[in-house]
Amino acid sequence: MPHRDTHSDSHVNAFAEMGLATELVQELTKLGITSPTPVQAAAIPQLMAGHDVMASAQTGTGKTAAFLLPALHKLFKPAKHNARGPRVLVLTPTRELAEQVAKVATDYCKLIPRCKVACVVGGVPYPVQNRMLAQPYEVLVATPGRLSDLMRGGRIDFGRLDMLVLDEADRMLDMGFIDEVEAIVSAMPKDRQTALFSATLSETVQRFAGPMLRDPRLVEMEVTVNAQPQIEQAVHYADGYEHKQKLVAALLKEASETQSIVFTATKADADNLAEWLKLEGFRAAAMHGDLAQRDRRRTLDRLRRAEIDILVATDVAARGIDVAGIGLVLNFDLPRFAEDYIHRVGRTGRAGRTGKAISLVTKNDFMLLTRIRRRYNIDFGTVSLSGLEARFKPGQGGNGGGYGDRKPSGGYKGKRPHGGGYAGASTGGYAGNGGGYGDKRRNESRGADTRGAGSESRESRGTFGGGSHNPNSNPGSFRSGSRDGGAPRAERPASNGETRQRRASW
Questions:
Q1: Which terminus of the chain has a lower count of CB atoms within 10 Å, N or C?
Q2: Pair (341, 437) in one structural domain
């Protein structure tokens, strides 16, 4: 039986009572932060006690402070080893997230003597970063690709590293950074402390993390956007691309007093939609992986300065965006991975603010919508703008459309179980464009996760695990030395507000 750790709100209701250095508590007070969020209350005591931690936490829950505060607390003590290089390393999947974490770390470091923060990401000239790394620094925030390059050039020494943090580990795997991360970790001292934070603690994430963590404490927050009641979530049905354009324009006009992010599935759609919105009189700009780093930073700065009101972005480009004024998230296209929905919605309603998230759903999107709803137990509302109502209604079918009068129970008539839609009458099964389940129920196919054609390509050297995500595929390929044993751990969602902590059993 796994060991369970419990925590009492009575003794973790203030940062000072967690044992954090007085200087850190004073800086938090100056920033107006006096009470920990649930993930901070759960993770900080474990990290302060010296345990490795594996935590599930969504964006906008205060997870950055949950790992930075215990990490910076270590800087008040002398380094265990006499060497150069960082005492704290934070790895993030994207440049924007790295820069955001580095900014927060710099704010927290103001009252810590000799606390310097360095940030190394792609898109910045190597000589600039080499000069920065030649100066003394305590905290390094980096993306795996650029850090690997600098390590090969002999620019990084991990001899005195006290703590490693892997932030948004699930996204690092999605972007194909497993080789880089494993190479980086192999160069570190064995006696370091490690913290891993991920939106979800899937079997794949746990297998990846196994060799890097020592007897970790599991901190599992409820992974559902219903745990963020300040975010109003709804769907608006749409008939196609042009109808979606009209809906976006109307919804943005309704939200004209706030800033918005519109998510698209492809880089081309982000560019095209941003240009169309500008022609319609909106102050909009696109951001995606094909833009140069300086252009992405310039666009983000314009958003923060309110020089633009609307950012049209892809999933990869929008990771790590933390702009207080985002009041509306529009999903022009639903994400192909359910986890990405969590990260999209997390761009609004941050730090307790209110926000809205509206998804435009066509008859071809019902499988994606159902997957998100079931995965995170989301109760979507429905909105319908007057004069822009969709012609189709849920249950009329489509390519993987909705349920008819009742749940599917017909017989599979297609030639291959994962092709086309689910054909069948409205009395059983999904109405679709090809194939369908009849006699057999479609349990085998539930949860199939396939990436649609034209989706944004990864900004990396490949994808983790290889192959398509279908019910019969291996959950991930691992080289020798990676953990591959043990039965899958049952994923039981916690109730609202509940936190589960225990030692991870492999």
A1: N
A2: no
161 and 24, same domain (yes or no): yes
Closest alpha carbon to 245 in 214, 221, 274: 274
- Average pLDDT on 418-424 reads 37
- Which of residues 223, 238, 257 is at a domain's end? 223
Q: What is the pLDDT of residue 276?
A: 97
Q: What is the mean pLDDT of residues 411-435?
A: 37
Q: What angle do CA 362, 366, 368 make, to 5 degrees?
A: 110
What's the DSSP call for residue 17?
G
Write a three-state SS string for 157-225. Answer: CCCCCCEEEEECHHHHHHCCCHHHHHHHHHCCCCCCEEEEEECCCCHHHHHHHHHHCCCCEEEEECCCH
Buried-state track 222-235, b at ≥16 Cβ within 10 A, e below 16: bbbbebbeebbbeb
Q: Are residues 113 and 29 in the same domain?
A: yes
Task: For residue 209, give the CATH number of its domain.
Answer: 3.40.50.300
Spatial distance between the Cα atoms of 421 and 20, rounded to a whole number of angstroms: 56
SS3 356: strand
Query: In this predicted model, what pLDDT tens digit does every residue of 119-154 receive, in sequence order?
Result: 999 989 999 999 999 999 999 999 999 999 999 999
201 and 242 together in one domain: no
Mean pLDDT of 473-479: 37
Number of domains observed in the structure of the chain: 3
Gap between the Cα atoms of 286 and 270, Å rounded: 6
Per-residue pLDDT of 168-214, as tens digits, reads 998 898 888 999 999 999 999 999 999 999 988 888 899 999 999 99
Q: How high is the pLDDT of residue 225?
A: 53
How far apart are alpha carbons 244 and 332 in whole angstroms?
A: 7
Asked if the structure places residue 482 within a domain, the reply is no
**Domain boundaries, position 116:** 4-223
Same domain, 174 and 260: no
Q: What average pLDDT does this structure show over 280-299?
A: 89
Single out the residue in 430, 445, 463 at which a domain terminates. Answer: 463
User: If you count DSSP H runs as helices and E runs as strands, how many of each does the chain have, helices first?
Assistant: 15, 16
Residue 392 lies in a domain: no
Residue 176 lies in a domain: yes
Q: What pLDDT, on a 0 to 100 scale, did the predictor assign at position 229?
A: 63
Please check whether residue 277 lies inside any domain of the structure. yes
**Cβ-based neighbours of 342, under 8 Å, separated by 6 or more:** 58, 59, 199, 200, 223, 225, 376
Q: Do residues 219 and 244 both lie within one domain? A: no
Task: Answer yes or no: is pLDDT of 108 > 60.
Answer: yes
Mapped onto helix, strand or coil, the DSSP state of residue 304 is helix
Write down how long the chain is: 506
Check whether residue 290 and residue 353 sit in a common domain: yes
Least confident among 229-243, 319-333, 358-372 = 319-333
